[in-house]
Design brief:
- This protein is α/β, with parallel strands linked by helices.
- The chain has one domain: Metallo-beta-lactamase, Chain A (4-Layer Sandwich), CATH 3.60.15.10.
- It is 27% helix and 22% strand.
- The chain is built from eight helices and twelve strands.
- Strands 8-9-10-11-12 form a five-stranded mixed β-sheet, with no helix packed on it. Strands 4-3-2-5 form a four-stranded antiparallel β-sheet, with no helix packed on it. A three-stranded parallel β-sheet has the order 1-7-6, with no helix packed on it.
- Helix 6 links the parallel strand 6 and strand 7.
- It starts with a helix and ends in an 8-residue tail after the last strand.
Length: 303
């Protein structure tokens, strides 16, 4: 009887320890983000033919802020029959930031890349403990050269400074993006003064062959496109410059997956299913508008 009590006590202590460890690793998920809605302007466009006939003087500079060294197939749907054709060899996946310059509305960043912690404290930089554990378990490492971080590159390119990196930076994302798991992964990246603005794609018009789309400035120059799947409210972007560019974001990490129609894995099976729908819409758009350059989430080469 005494031994049984000791075993029960040991089991209770073990369970409490495991629960406490999980709660600690996921503590960022308990943080709440107070966000305001993005003020969606009216648009005069109803189809992509019309949009692409009216390019704008908007520029795109893509910066690489480091690499993630991993089996690229790890982030794809593990149940896909096409996984057999993926080489599963660890490779360097580019960590990209897209710098948009609009003559009227100013400068914007799509994604934020790595800060200099990845050069100073490799291989995990400023990752949360949960992200470090995930990287370690899956053999993922991260690499960055000194001076390759976003702040250093923007400072070299723009001597006026780097206002986008100030504590009061405004972050724009999909309304459903900040799920518990997403917050657990990245909540520590934001200062207490960060401002959050969300795009409600449920109220956005659909522009075939894509899904809900938002004309961010109301002039047809920059479009946010709903592509949920890898995360709950992923966004792709169309830069309607004289040479237009489609940024797939995490809806497709690299060219092989895009070409072969293999979606990224989501937080759960439902997310992966939504990822396939988003991927097929992007592939249909790329097929219908071959003059639009496609840039993948972690690869610069075009499909």
């Amino acid at each position: 009887m005494h031994k049984l009590k000791k075993l029960r006590l040991a089991a209770v202590i073990l369970i409490v320890a495991v629960v406490a460890t999980i709660a600690y690793l996921l503590r960022g998920g308990f943080r709440t983000f107070e966000a305001s809605p993005y003020p969606v302007p009216a648009t005069a466009f109803t189809n992509w033919n019309d949009v692409l006939r009216h390019p704008h003087d908007i520029s795109l500079n893509t910066l690489q802020t480091g690499v993630v060294h991993m089996d690229a197939c790890l982030n794809l749907d593990p149940a896909s029959p096409s996984q057999a054709g993926c080489d599963h060899k660890p490779r360097d996946l580019a960590v990209l930031v897209h710098w948009i310059q609009h003559p009227r509305f100013g400068d914007f960043l799509i994604d934020a890349g790595f800060d200099d912690s990845f050069a100073k404290r490799p291989p995990y930089g400023n990752y949360t403990e949960a992200m470090r554990l995930f990287n370690w378990v899956n053999g993922v490492t991260n690499r960055q050269q000194l001076g390759e971080d976003l702040s250093a590159q923007l400072t070299r390119l723009n001597t006026a400074g780097v206002p986008a990196l100030e504590p009061e930076t405004e972050f724009v994302f999909g309304k459903a993006e900040a799920s518990f798991l997403a917050r657990a992964a990245v909540a520590n990246h934001f200062s207490g003064k960060s401002r959050f603005v969300t795009i409600d794609f449920s109220a956005a018009p659909t522009m075939a062959p894509l899904g809900p789309c938002v004309d961010l400035f109301g002039d047809g120059s920059l479009w946010a496109i709903s592509v949920p799947g890898h995360t709950d409210d992923d966004i792709a972007y169309l830069i309607n410059a004289p040479k237009p560019v489609l940024l797939t974001g995490d809806a497709s990490h690299f060219g092989w997956a895009f070409k072969n129609g293999v979606a990224p894995r989501g937080w759960n099976k439902s997310g992966t299913t939504r990822g396939y729908k988003s991927l097929e819409l992007l592939r249909a758009f790329a097929g219908a508008y071959p003059a639009v350059r496609v840039v993948y989430g972690h690869e610069v080469d075009r499909y």
